Amino acid sequence: MSSSAPSPSRTRTEPAPVRWALIITALLFLGLFLFVPLAAVFAQAFEKGWDAYLAAIREPDALAAVKLTLITAAISVPVNLIFGVVAAWAIAKFEFRGKQLLITLIDLPFSVSPVISGLIYVLLFGLQGWLGPWLQAHDIKIIFAVPGIVLATVFVTFPFVARELIPLMEAQGKDEEEAAITLGASGFQTFWRVTIPNIKWGLLYGVILCNARAMGEFGAVSVVSGHIRGSTNTIPLHVEILYNEYNYVAAFAVASLLALLALVTLVVKSFVEWRMRELS
């Protein structure tokens, strides 16, 4: 007596009305909490027309905020890229004392409020902080300056690359690297020609998330920036100032830049996820 595999329809336990109810509920939540706010941002941004929108974007303080945001991301993302690859390689490929502690420290920014992390930097580098008098004596500015903003951003974003690579590299194991070394490859050759090609899509995925968080970070940067217009305001901080001044069109115009960044990030993230599924 021959047996046949059950059809997909027989393996489903939920009746059609339940499935459609779940799908509709998910779409409603997406529409209410994602698409409606996104549409509202662009509607408010263009409320007074294209000229007002461009004027808000070209305003000197807005351009300074965009420039600072790009500089901060351009520094923090490569730093976290290097740290993430090194940390993931060490954790996934080697056994050593303190390995679990290192993993816990990597997860620390996920459990600490960004405002608290910014406050820690103020307590360390502020005028009344532990290193404040020494920094002031040597005319080194960290808090209320670009270095403090970069440090705060690096702290809140450094788990993203490492946390994406650790499980990926652990799943891949050590066999290919050990085979390459056995065949005479150096450590650098093994890393560049074996490890990197195997993790490139996961690495890109982590970099995308890290960059999005770096450009959109508010809490930690708000504490250490000092809110100096045209000098230490990133895009999120500039949006807050414009909104508090009731300059809604300019606030939403600048906020639309972050919204566009989020959309681009979502598209690239979806493409990378698709490529990772295709290769798995």
Beta percentage is under 5%
Mean pLDDT equals 87
- Number of β-strand runs: 0
Count of runs of 4 or more consecutive helical residues: 15
Oligomer: single chain
Overall radius of gyration: 24 Å
Main β-sheet description: none
- Shape from CA axes? globular
Spans of at least 5 consecutive residues with low confidence: none
List the helices and strands and how they pair.
Elements: H1 8-11, H2 16-45, H3 50-58, H4 60-93, H5 99-106, H6 108-111, H7 114-125, H8 132-137, H9 146-157, H10 159-172, H11 175-182, H12 187-216, H13 219-225, H14 235-244, H15 248-279
Helix pairs in contact: 2-15, 3-15, 4-9, 4-10, 4-12, 7-9, 7-13, 9-12, 9-13, 10-12, 11-12, 12-15, 14-15
Could you please describe the fold and organization of this structure?
- It is a single chain.
- The chain is an all-alpha fold.
- The chain is globular.
- It is built from 15 helices and no strands.
- 79% of the residues lie in helices and 0% in strands.
Question: What's a concise summary of this model?
Answer:
It is built from 15 helices and no strands. It is mainly α and 280 residues long.
Structural key phrases:
79% helix; globular; mainly alpha; 280 residues; 15 helices
